[in-house]
């Protein structure tokens, strides 16, 4: 996404960013399935070395394609309207600066928690499936199902956000995530396990698609919103794995990791809902 931001700005960056997210999910799905195929013919060590070489090659190419400085071209049209509205908007919230700062802090907390939950899902999907009694080959397929759910989520939000408000998308996601926990007592069944982990990956994928747009519209941060978004999401990914591992060890079971995962995502969604409500009621 940083590379996209270097080449595009304003509204022009929306489509490339969506394509970037979809490509990331598709790539993760492809390499997960491809690794399972390679494991039938070679050892895991050689598969890991091969994936590391491919990853290094694409990282070098991405850095080479990045320009020396981000584009700052001024494009007439929708961006002009946004620039003209910014001073008026700042003047309108002049008397609510503490509330606006609180809203931005809640927004920062929501992004951190949501990305921490996504990190838990990506890190512990396969170990949790193995501890639930699923065969190793099926556990690898579970990881692929999670990435497939992310790809479906990216495409799904892109189609429905034009007809439905993002707020109601988040409400539906939270409800879906809560309902799928009824499958926990039946997780020993392989088909139920696949369905469970499909939704396990669907929720963070869809939430991560809708959240950045709210964060980039931050009132107090302004142009720094994109930078703080990257910092918050990176910190969330960094903390998610250790927190989930500690919860799993303390509870002595995979259910502890699931509790940490759901608490993180629900807490982030709640913080986001409070933020949006404050903006609608007091800052618009």
Would you write up a description of this structure?
The chain has 284 residues and is mainly α. The protein folds into two domains: 1-72, no CATH class; 88-284, Growth Hormone, Chain: A (Up-down Bundle), CATH 1.20.1250.20. The protein has ten helices and no strands. The chain has helices at 2-7, 14-38, 44-65, 78-92, 97-131, 136-160, 166-179, 190-216, 225-251, 254-282. α5 (97-131) packs across α9 (225-251), α7 packs antiparallel against α8 and α9 packs antiparallel against α10. The radius of gyration is 20 Å and the shape is globular. 29% of the residues are buried. The model is unreliable at 68-93 (pLDDT under 50). This is Major facilitator superfamily (MFS) profile domain-containing protein. It comes from Akanthomyces muscarius. It is a multi-pass membrane protein. GO terms for molecular function: transmembrane transporter activity. The chain crosses the membrane at residues 20-39, 45-66, 99-118, 138-157, 169-188, 194-216, 228-247, 259-282.
Q: What is the β-strand count?
A: 0
Low-pLDDT segments: 68-93
* Number of helical elements: 10
Radius of gyration: 20 Å
Mean pLDDT: 65
H/E element order:
HHHHHHHHHH
The CATH H-level superfamily of the largest domain is: MFS general substrate transporter like domains
Instruction: Give a short account of the largest sheet.
Output: none
Share of helix, binned:
over 70%
CATH architecture of the largest domain: Up-down Bundle
Binned strand content: under 5%
Helices and strands: which structural class?
mainly alpha
End-to-end C-alpha gap: 30 Å
CATH class of the largest domain: Mainly Alpha
What form results from the Cα inertia axes?
globular
Main location: membrane
Transmembrane segments: 20-39, 45-66, 99-118, 138-157, 169-188, 194-216, 228-247, 259-282
Keywords: Membrane, Transmembrane, Transmembrane helix
Protein name: Major facilitator superfamily (MFS) profile domain-containing protein
């Amino acid at each position: 996404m940083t590379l996209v931001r270097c080449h595009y700005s304003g509204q022009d960056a929306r489509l490339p960013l969506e394509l970037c997210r979809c490509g990331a999910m598709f790539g993760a799905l492809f390499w997960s399935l491809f690794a399972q195929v390679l494991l039938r013919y070679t050892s895991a060590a050689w598969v890991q070395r091969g994936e590391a070489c491919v990853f290094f090659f694409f990282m070098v190419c991405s850095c080479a394609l990045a320009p020396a400085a981000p584009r700052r071209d001024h494009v007439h049209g929708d961006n002009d309207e946004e620039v003209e509205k910014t001073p008026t908007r700042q003047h309108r919230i002049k008397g609510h600066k503490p509330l606006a700062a609180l809203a931005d802090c809640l927004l920062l907390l929501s992004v951190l928690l949501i990305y921490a939950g996504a990190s838990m899902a990506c890190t512990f999907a396969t170990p949790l499936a193995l501890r639930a009694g699923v065969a190793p080959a099926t556990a690898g397929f579970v990881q692929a199902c999670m990435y497939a759910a992310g790809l479906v989520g990216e495409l799904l939000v892109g189609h429905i956000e034009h007809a439905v408000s993002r707020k109601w998308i988040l409400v539906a996601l939270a409800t879906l995530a809560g309902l799928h926990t009824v499958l926990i007592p039946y997780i020993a069944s392989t088909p139920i396990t696949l369905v469970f982990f499909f939704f396990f990956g669907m929720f963070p994928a869809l939430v991560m698609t809708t959240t950045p747009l709210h964060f980039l519209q931050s009132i107090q941060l302004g142009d720094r919103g994109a930078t703080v978004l990257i910092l918050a999401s990176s910190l969330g990914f960094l903390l998610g794995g250790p927190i989930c591992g500690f919860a799993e060890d303390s509870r002595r079971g995979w259910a502890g990791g699931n509790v940490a995962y759901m608490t993180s995502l629900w807490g982030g969604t709640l913080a986001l809902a409070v933020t949006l409500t404050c903006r609608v009621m007091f800052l618009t």
